[in-house]
Write a structure and sequence with these properties.
With about 250 residues, the protein is of the alpha/beta class. It is built from 7 helices and 15 strands. α1 crosses α2 and α3 crosses α7. It is globular and about 50 Å long.
């Protein structure tokens, strides 16, 4: 078994990647990050993925996350926070071509983060219904039932008070509207309550870049019956999960 596989996490603001030590479930080297191009067209993003992979001189399988629905491990179906030109693109073919024909595995970004957290992070060993939420440019979701992933849930697009939930409760919304942690926590609380009403999870795992600041807002969230914990892999979960998925594809 290869001990290292490369993971790349495509986000609305940055594209980051690194080799992942599968035995430890952690980055084998410090990650390399480039800014997401605007517009984030398929060709422009593919060029950034190439830059990240070439930074390490990588020559094996690569797992790549995408911020939208990915079907069949390849075809992009939605593109809320990147250019709409991604819709119906064969991302596996595009990205493999951009990095010299290396084998590529593509999956939803929150699903990748969820895989990592369930195997080596905050969800390790947990059964029942577990939901990971990534707060960033948007809100990603990964739903697990007794450890099995229900892919492409995209629950950041649930309607909440007449808006896409991520337009109200994402980290971007907090930054754009200059909300205090208290005000933003109330919005997140309403979103979690809505999810709890629909899915009754035993555990919410809060991930994304804001997870490293969980002490500023998680204690402010009240009235949620499910256990509420920060992601343990913080903002590296997507990279680690992408590498895990690529290893399973190419083992």
């Amino acid at each position: 078994m290869e001990t290292e596989i490369f993971g790349v996490d495509i986000g609305g603001s940055g594209i980051k990647g690194a080799p992942v030590d599968l035995a430890r479930g952690d980055l084998a080297q410090p990650r390399h990050k480039v800014l997401t191009p605007h517009p984030a067209t398929p060709e422009a993003v593919a060029g950034c993925v190439r830059e990240v992979v070439e930074h390490f001189g990588w020559s094996g399988p690569v797992g790549v996350t995408f911020p939208g629905v990915v079907t069949g491990g390849s075809t992009i179906r939605t593109a809320a926070n990147v250019d709409k030109g991604w819709v119906d693109v064969d991302a596996r073919e595009l990205l493999s071509g951009a990095i010299g024909g290396l084998p590529v595995t593509v999956l939803n970004d929150a699903d990748a983060a969820g895989l990592a957290e369930m195997r080596v992070g905050a969800g390790k060993g947990r059964g029942g219904t577990v939901m990971l939420l990534t707060f960033g440019t948007g809100i990603g979701s990964a739903l697990f039932v007794d450890g099995r992933l229900v892919p492409n849930t995209e629950l950041g697009h649930l309607e909440l008070h007449g808006h896409d939930a991520e337009k109200r409760a994402s980290t971007k919304a907090r930054d754009d509207e200059q909300l205090t942690w208290e005000h933003w926590a109330r919005r997140v609380q309403k979103y979690l309550a809505h999810l709890e009403m629909l899915f009754s999870p035993e555990l919410f795992i809060i991930g994304g870049g804001v997870s490293r600041k969980s002490a500023k807002f998680l204690p402010l969230i009240e009235g949620i019956k499910a256990e509420l914990v920060p992601a343990e892999l913080l903002n590296n979960a997507g990279i680690v999960g992408a590498a895990m998925a690529a290893h399973e594809d190419h083992a």
